[in-house]
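Input/output pair, single chain:
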Amino acid sequence: MKHGTVKKAADVPAAFLYGVKNFSLVGAGTVLDEPSAARAIHAGAGFIFAPNLNIDVVRAAKR
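Output:
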């Protein structure tokens, strides 16, 4: 698997996240709305990065 950007956090296989869990922090960037934040978190994102302050994204990340 090449290193790079994944367009959707849900596209990252759980086995990959399990394999790097002890060595890397995998997150999601350019999260614009609450459903995207929830999908990223459900897929295993360890952090969320947003280009703006969307209170719904903040609430989803705090859950």
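The helical segments are 14-20, 34-42, 55-62. The radius of gyration is 12 Å.
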